[in-house]
């Protein structure tokens, strides 16, 4: 390989896998500045701490790829969680508790989907409405009070299989499902097509509304599971849980390369984005960075990620345009 | 024609209902209308207080009607609720201030417009013009701090969990800890001090990282019970049982943790007592029995010795089964 080829190859791969390079760099730097960073316990901690947000982020990735979003994820997480806890306290059945959590997530997201597809409401408004309704319902149901003494319910969030915490297993499982769905199914291809250009997707025979409904439905399943895991992890039913969780989830997705304009994004990228955020929070705690400074750093990272997203998209479009111009104006054709 | 008859009948029915309603209202005794403006219904202590106020009125004041408004932890929302209460001619505004400065102007404007104002669970910087029922946040922390002074070992290593930035109760409780503990125990090392926004899950995450970074930690000093309970979830997961943990509020969860020997102590900020005193004071002001009073409620220290008494209070209230 000649040296210009090598440079081009490096440029191509570093651009495609830039987010993983950032993650690798963060791991290297963090392990240098903190001796405990790379310990098994710390890696377990980080994985456990990011697991619930990452599950939400997988749902957010699917939606954002299709040009949708869900601002209600945090509130629905709280509603699904408290109703799940309450059903466990009433019946003692873990299976029923999980089913209730899933059902609440799915029902809320079906409503989101209906409002978006049947009434052509912008997803921002539709899910903002659900955010308020679901939070209100969680507070109304609990009278604003936390539910305690949840007994064996903690098994979902506090147990481990071997050395791996259960929430991390859920995160990995849901990650694999998301990856498979996006990479290897017709639904996945339809999601990218709709997010890239909804009209073109419709013209090519994709039932856009049906695909959008499915996207919300899948997101509902993920949010329901996240709700159950959250309450189980904190050993209580907290009606004010998950405030701003949807933004953390979307941030992970976007840092991981999902384009807010739709049509672009991967499950592995989102996982990397979630780890970047998780490692950032973790290393700042390990290094005793003061609270206010942590907020500044987190904000800066979000701004950088979004700028990078827009910049890379523009660059890609310019490249595409350039190659099209080149092919249309080949010498001799003009 | 049929339509016209229908409309006329509907009009007559409406008129008769209105006349009956006015007649009934006229025949009834005076009903005092109180607007309770809560700091935030999403905040578990504020919600507990709002429920306690509603229950207190329902139980003991048949001639009072209380409507609860949610301030959503936003000063502008609270201001709007105060202004609306004036327009809606409430007899009294019972206000749980979010910010001691931000609520002064709207509260004073309401008083100038002839609506009585009583504050509960915080006060406003109005030179004591508004009657108030409150607990002393410095003392709430100080009682725990005095106990900790005896309990935390020499050269003890502690972590501190704070409420939201700028929150008066969090800041004042921290002052209580400073005066009664840190100033007396210069040997104690603060390993880290972070804002966990009163939240159980955020405190849990900090504690997981702290356990790993610092190894031995002697005490968790938390500005509320929720965060202390979150940190204790992390210690439980790490198999640590020999750690001191202090909170404030006296929540049901904290009482159970103290009974089980997991948490060390808390001070009670009793929503029931605040509600009882606040509604009582509001009623006395409405009926002309009192004009002005500032009532400070006590904040008893809860430890393993006396925790059963408070568990019983929570059990009666349905917070513990």
In short:
The complex is a heterodimer of chains A (334) and B (321). With 334 residues, chain A is an all-alpha fold. Chain A is built from 14 helices and 2 strands; from the N terminus they run αααααααββααααααα.
Describe it for me?
Chain A has 334 residues and is mostly helical. Chain A has a single domain (33-309), classed as ABC transporter involved in vitamin B12 uptake, BtuC (Orthogonal Bundle), CATH 1.10.3470. In chain A, 77% of the residues lie in helices and 1% in strands. Chain A contains 14 helices and two strands, in the order αααααααββααααααα. Chain A has helices at 3-16, 18-33, 40-65, 73-91, 94-118, 123-142, 155-158, 166-184, 186-196, 198-203, 208-234, 245-255, 267-286, 291-328; strands spanning 160-161, 164-165. In chain A, strands 1-2 form a two-stranded antiparallel ribbon. In chain A, helix 3 packs across helix 9 (186-196), helix 4 runs antiparallel to helix 5 (94-118) and helix 5 packs antiparallel against helix 6. The relative contact order of chain A is 0.17. The mean pLDDT of chain A is 89. Chain B is an alpha/beta fold and 321 residues long. Chain B folds into two domains: 32-130, Response regulator (Rossmann fold, 3-Layer(aba) Sandwich); 137-267, Response regulator (Rossmann fold, 3-Layer(aba) Sandwich), CATH 3.40.50.2300. Helix content of chain B is 49%, strand content 17%. Chain B is built from eleven helices and twelve strands. Chain B has helices spanning 2-27, 44-60, 75-87, 104-112, 137-151, 168-182, 200-214, 225-237, 252-259, 271-286, 307-316, and strands at 32-38, 64-70, 92-95, 116-120, 132-135, 157-162, 189-195, 219-222, 244-246, 266-267, 294-297, 301-302. In chain B, the strands form three sheets. A six-stranded parallel β-sheet of chain B has the order 2-1-3-4-5-11, sandwiched between helices. A four-stranded parallel β-sheet of chain B has the order 7-6-8-9, with helices on both faces. In chain B, helix 5 (137-151) packs parallel to helix 6. Chain B is elongated, with a radius of gyration of 24 Å. Chain B starts with a helix and ends in a 5-residue tail after the last helix. The relative contact order of chain B is 0.12. Residues 17-27 of chain B have low confidence and may be disordered.
């Amino acid at each position: 390989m000649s040296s210009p080829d090598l440079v081009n190859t490096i440029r191509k791969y570093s651009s495609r896998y830039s987010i993983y390079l950032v993650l690798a760099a963060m791991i290297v730097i963090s392990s240098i500045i903190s001796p405990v960073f790379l310990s098994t316990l710390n890696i377990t901690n980080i994985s456990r701490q990011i697991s619930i947000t990452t599950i939400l982020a997988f749902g957010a990735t699917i939606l954002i790829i299709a040009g949708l979003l869900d601002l209600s994820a945090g509130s629905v997480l709280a509603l699904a969680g408290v109703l799940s806890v309450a059903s466990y306290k009433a019946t003692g059945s873990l299976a029923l508790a999980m089913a209730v959590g899933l059902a609440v997530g799915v029902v809320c997201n079906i409503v989101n989907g209906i409002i978006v597809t049947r009434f052509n409401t912008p997803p921002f408004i539709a899910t903002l409405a659900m955010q308020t309704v679901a939070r209100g319902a969680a507070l109304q149901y609990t009278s604003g009070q936390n539910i305690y003494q949840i007994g064996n319910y903690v098994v979902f969030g506090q147990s481990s299989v071997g050395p791996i915490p259960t929430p991390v297993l859920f995160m990995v499982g849901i990650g694999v499902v998301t990856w498979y769905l996006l990479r290897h199914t017709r639904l996945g291809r339809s999601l990218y097509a709709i997010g890239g250009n909804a009209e073109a997707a419709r013209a090519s025979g994709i039932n856009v509304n049906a695909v959008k409904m499915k996207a919300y439905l899948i997101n509902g399943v993920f949010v329901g599971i996240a709700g159950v895991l959250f309450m189980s992890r904190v050993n209580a039913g907290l009606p004010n849980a998950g405030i701003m969780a949807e933004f953390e989830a979307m941030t992970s997705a976007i840092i991981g390369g999902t384009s807010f304009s739709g049509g672009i994004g991967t499950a592995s990228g989102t996982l990397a984005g979630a780890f970047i955020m998780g490692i950032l929070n973790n290393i700042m705690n390990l290094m005793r960075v003061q609270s206010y400074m942590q907020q500044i750093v987190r904000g800066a990272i979000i701004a950088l990620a979004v700028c990078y997203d827009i910049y890379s998209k523009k660059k890609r479009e310019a490249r595409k345009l350039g190659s099209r111009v080149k092919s249309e104006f080949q010498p001799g054709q003009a | 024609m049929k339509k016209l008859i229908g409309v006329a009948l509907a009009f007559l029915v409406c008129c008769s209902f209105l006349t009956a309603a006015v007649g009934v209202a006229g025949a009834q005794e005076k009903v005092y209308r109180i607007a309770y403006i809560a700091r935030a219904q999403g905040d578990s202590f504020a919600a507990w207080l709002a429920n306690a106020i509603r229950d207190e009125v329902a139980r003991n004041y048949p001639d009072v009607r209380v409507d609860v408004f949610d301030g959503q932890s936003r000063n502008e929302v609270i201001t709007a609720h105060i202004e609306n209460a004036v327009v809606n001619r409430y007899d009294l505004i019972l206000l749980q201030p979010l910010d001691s400065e931000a609520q002064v102007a709207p509260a004073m404007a309401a008083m100038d417009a002839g609506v009585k104002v009583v504050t509960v669970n915080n006060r406003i910087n109005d030179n004591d013009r508004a009657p108030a029922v409150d607990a002393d946040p410095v003392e709430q922390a100080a009682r725990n701090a005095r106990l900790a002074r005896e309990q935390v070992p020499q050269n003890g290593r502690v972590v501190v969990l704070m409420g939201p930035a700028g929150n008066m109760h969090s800041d004042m409780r921290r002052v209580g800890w400073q005066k009664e503990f840190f100033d007396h125990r210069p040997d104690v090392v603060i390993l880290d001090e972070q804002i966990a926004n009163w939240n159980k899950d955020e405190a849990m995450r900090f504690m997981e990282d702290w356990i790993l970074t610092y190894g031995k930690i002697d005490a968790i000093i938390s500005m509320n019970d929720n965060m202390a309970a979150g940190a204790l979830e992390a210690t439980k997961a790490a198999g640590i049982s020999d750690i001191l943990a202090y909170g404030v509020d006296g929540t049901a969860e904290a009482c159970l943790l103290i009974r089980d020997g997991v948490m060390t102590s808390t001070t009670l900020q009793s929503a029931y007592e605040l509600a009882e005193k606040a509604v009582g004071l509001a009623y006395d002001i409405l009926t002309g029995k009192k004009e002005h009073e500032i009532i400070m409620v006590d904040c008893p220290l809860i430890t393993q010795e006396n925790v059963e008494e408070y568990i019983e209070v929570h059990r009666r209230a349905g917070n513990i089964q």
